[in-house]
Design a protein that fits this description.
The chain is an alpha/beta fold. The strands form 5 sheets. A 5-stranded parallel sheet has the order 5-4-3-10-11, sandwiched between helices. A 4-stranded antiparallel sheet has the order 6-7-8-9. Helix 6 packs across helix 7 and helix 11 runs antiparallel to helix 12. The radius of gyration is 23 Å and the shape is elongated. Bound molecules: 5'-O-(N-(L-cysteinyl)-sulfamoyl)adenosine (5CA) and zinc ion (ZN).
Length: 417
Amino acid sequence: MLTWPAPQIPELPGEGRPIQVRDSSTGELVVAAPGQDARLYVCGITPYDATHLGHASTYVAFDLLLRGWIDEGKTVRYASNVTDVDDPLLERAQATGVDWQDLATDQIALYREDMTALGVIPPDVYTGAVESVPDVVRAVEALVAAGAAYRVPSVDAGDDYYADLSVDPDFGRVARLDAETMRTFFGERGGDPDRPGKRHELDPLLWRAARAGEPAWDGGTLGAGRPGWHIECAVIARDGLGLPFDVQGGGNDLRFPHHEMSTSHARLLDEGHGARTHVHTGMVGLHGEKMSKSLGNLVLVSRLREQGVDPMAVRLAILAHHYAADWEWTDTVLAEAVARWERWRAAVSGNGGPAADDTLAAIRAALADDLDAPRALRAVDAWAELSLSGSVPDAELVEGAPGVIARAVNALLGVRL
Ligand code: 5CA
Ligand code: ZN
């Protein structure tokens, strides 16, 4: 699948620090990538109602991680997917009388434009669910052969295939939830706990047999059908990054069941290996509720762009919140970001300015400490205030310092001034 143009990342003086993130499985701070290679998988969009501020916030968060790794001098590999066939997409296409493929194509194009405007680093490996079908089929066949998957006959079609969670002793270690919460989330988030014939109510769908009116692909020994959601990400991450990889990311609505299940599938496909660390972002809300396609309470990045809002101000509005926190999008949040962006631009416009070294070190330290963007923003605010105040004696102004700040803000925070 085509990605989008990569932003230019300026060189910076000095060296980055090892980036630590909070592993949402354990609550511990851990070094995000202990080796020289740093490998990230972030769950991509299901292409409708793209790109709302919740999506943008999640992708900007992981973009900071990539920027931190690049600053550390790591060899970075980033993979992501597009869930370009799944129930919610098909349901939306049906409800609006649009061909599901046209809907997906248009929304992926819009998403690419939004990511380009926001200066988000594109994935090195970008794979659609449809593109991954042959690999998913082989993976499900392998799970069947290993006794980790089974058939469930359907009344209206051929056999569906489900993962047998009982063969995975580590199931549950990603989200660490009690049985009742798991069942509730599974039912609310795309699962089918009441499907007759399953061995366990939480067993997730791997392959759905072709139904009348639904798209289907050749499934080899599985019969025609389409992939389940979690196996799609397990296979795309495995093939794009190899197993194990460093960080699996997404919004915290994906912790369970999606990341629990996809990690379980990956482990069973590759001798116990999955993602080393799970990182989850908080939810962006609007008017007191999670911004979501199902509620329709959306602020779209493209709509803001149409209204003339600079995407860098949108990016600053996102960065003013720690990635792990839930937060609300409001007009005030946007107005404050626009004001900050203008202040920063004014502050870097001169040739000489207050010394930049401590500010650069403070930005790096903030990012290394669980991607603390709000703290990094405060460090730049302090420098900008000093620069604009005119209180630094001429003899102490450093030539080129505003340029260092502008490059640091661009390279580390992705904000072009
Ligand atoms: N295609 C699947 C993942 S494989 C999916 O969840 N797609 S999505 O379009 O619904 O969401 C894309 C990403 O945005 C996910 O990481 C999701 O957790 C995140 N996301 C969705 N809504 C919000 C929100 N309100 N705030 C923050 N992140 C959100
Ligand atoms: Zn996913």
